[in-house]
C-alpha cells in the first residue's frame, strides 16, 4: 500500500471518527458521561486489554500453525508481527481490505513466497468469516428470545451483513473447488464490463484473474488433503472471536451490572460484527457505535452511552493503537534492517 493511500485512509478514518463523535455526543451531558466512566472498575478494563491482545495473538498462532504444517520455517515472534500488521491495516481500510496485502508484503521481506502466504491467509480469511456466519445462522435457527428482541431494531442490517458474508465466503469456496467454472465466469464478467465501458485494461485484469485462479488451485489441493488442519483452524478462529466479543461483557461487569449472562452479551456483540464486517467503513466506525446503542440499551440502560465509549475504546481503538505500534516496530525490524544488510 502506497503512502498516499495510507494517508488517504487515515483522513477518511478521521472524517468518520469526527462525524461519529458529533452524532453520538451532540447535545449529551459530557460531564455526566465522564463521571459514569470514572466510576467504573478499571480492573475489568485491564482484563479487556488482555483479551484484545489475545484476539490479535490468536491469529499469530493460527498463521504459525499453518506455516509449520506446510513445512515453512518461520518464527512465532514474526507471526505476531504479521498479525498486528494485518489488524492495523484492516482497522484503517474499508471492509478491512488492506490487511492481507500488507501481511503478504511483510512476509515477502521474510522470504516467504507469495503463493505460500496467499494460501495461508486465504484459509485464515475463510475460517474467520465462517465463524461469523455460524454465529448468525445459529441465532436464526435457535432463535433465543432475548437476543431476537435486542436485535429487532437492526434486523435489516444484520440480515444484510449475514448475506454478504455468506456470498463472499461461498464465492471464495466456489473459487477453490471449481476453478475452471470460476475462471469462465470471471472472464465473461470482465468482457461484459468492458463492453459497457466500465473497465478498460481488460488484458491486464485477465492476467490478474489467471494468477488468482492458480492460487486458488493450490488452496483447493490443500483443503482436500488437510481437512483436519482446516477444521482445527476453524476451532481456533472461534476462540479468537470469543476473546474480542468477551470485551463487551467485561465492560458490562466494570459498571457493576448484573442480570444478563455473558453468552447473551457475546452473541449480541457477535451480531454487531456480522452486521458491519462487510460494510465499507474502516473498523465499522460510526455504524458499530450506532448498533451498540440500539442493541444494548435494554441491557445497559442509562449507562449505554458510557459503556459504548469504553467498549469501543477497548475493542477497536486499543486494537488500532497496539497494532500501529507493532506495525512500526515490524517496519523498522523487517524492512529497514534488511536495507542495511543489503548495503
Please provide a written account of the structure.
The chain is mainly alpha-helical. It is 83% helix and 0% strand.
- Beta-strand percent range: under 5%
Average pLDDT over all residues = 81
Q: Could you give a short account of the major beta sheet?
A: none
Cα gyration radius (Å): 21 Å
Structural class: mainly alpha
Q: Supply the number of helical segments.
A: 14
Which regions are unreliable across 5 or more consecutive residues at pLDDT < 50? 339-343
Q: Total number of β-strand segments?
A: 0
Order of helices and strands: HHHHHHHHHHHHHH
* Helicity range: over 70%
Distance between the termini: 24 Å
The general outline is globular
Strand and helix map with partners:
Elements: H1 3-25, H2 30-38, H3 42-69, H4 76-92, H5 99-109, H6 114-142, H7 145-151, H8 155-177, H9 179-195, H10 202-225, H11 227-254, H12 262-276, H13 287-300, H14 304-342
Helix pairs in contact: 2-14, 3-4, 3-6, 3-11, 3-14, 4-5, 4-14, 5-6, 6-8, 6-10, 6-11, 6-12, 7-12, 8-9, 8-12, 9-10, 11-12, 11-14, 12-13, 13-14
Amino acid at each position: 500500500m502506497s503512502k498516499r493511500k495510507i494517508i488517504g485512509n487515515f483522513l477518511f478514518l478521521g472524517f468518520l471518527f469526527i462525524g461519529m463523535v458529533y452524532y453520538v455526543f451532540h447535545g449529551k451531558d459530557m460531564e455526566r458521561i465522564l463521571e459514569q466512566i470514572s466510576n467504573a472498575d478499571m480492573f475489568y478494563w485491564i482484563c479487556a486489554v488482555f483479551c484484545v491482545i489475545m484476539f490479535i495473538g490468536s491469529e499469530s498462532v493460527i498463521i504459525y500453525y499453518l506455516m509449520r504444517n506446510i513445512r515453512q520455517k518461520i518464527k512465532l515472534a514474526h507471526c505476531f508481527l504479521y498479525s498486528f500488521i494485518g489488524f492495523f491495516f484492516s482497522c484503517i481500510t474499508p471492509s478491512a481490505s488492506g490487511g492481507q496485502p500488507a501481511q503478504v508484503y511483510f512476509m515477502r521481506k521474510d522470504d516467504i513466497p507469495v503463493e505460500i502466504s496467499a494460501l495461508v491467509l486465504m484459509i485464515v480469511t475463510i475460517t474467520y468469516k465462517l465463524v461469523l456466519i455460524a454465529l448468525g445462522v445459529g441465532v436464526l435457527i435457535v432463535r433465543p428470545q432475548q437476543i431476537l428482541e435486542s436485535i429487532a431494531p437492526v434486523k435489516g442490517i444484520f440480515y444484510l451483513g449475514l448475506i454478504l458474508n455468506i456470498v463472499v465466503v461461498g464465492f471464495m469456496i466456489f473459487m477453490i473447488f471449481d476453478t475452471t467454472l470460476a475462471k469462465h465466469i470471471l472472464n465473461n464478467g470482465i468482457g461484459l464490463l468492458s463492453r459497457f465501458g466500465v473497465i478498460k485494461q481488460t488484458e491486464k485484469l485477465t492476467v490478474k484473474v489467471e494468477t488468482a485462479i492458480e492460487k486458488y488451485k493450490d488452496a483447493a489441493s490443500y483443503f482436500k488433503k488437510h481437512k483436519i488442519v482446516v477444521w482445527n483452524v476453524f476451532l481456533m478462529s472461534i476462540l479468537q472471536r470469543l476473546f474480542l466479543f468477551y470485551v463487551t461483557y467485561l465492560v458490562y461487569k466494570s459498571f457493576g451490572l448484573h442480570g444478563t449472562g455473558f453468552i447473551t452479551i457475546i452473541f449480541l456483540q457477535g451480531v454487531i460484527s456480522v452486521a458491519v464486517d462487510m460494510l465499507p467503513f474502516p473498523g465499522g466506525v460510526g455504524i458499530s457505535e450506532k448498533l451498540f446503542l440500539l442493541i444494548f440499551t435494554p441491557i445497559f440502560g442509562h449507562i449505554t452511552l458510557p459503556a459504548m465509549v469504553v467498549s469501543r475504546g477497548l475493542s477497536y481503538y486499543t486494537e488500532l493503537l497496539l497494532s500501529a505500534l507493532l506495525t512500526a516496530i515490524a517496519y523498522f525490524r523487517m524492512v529497514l534492517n534488511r536495507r542495511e544488510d543489503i548495503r
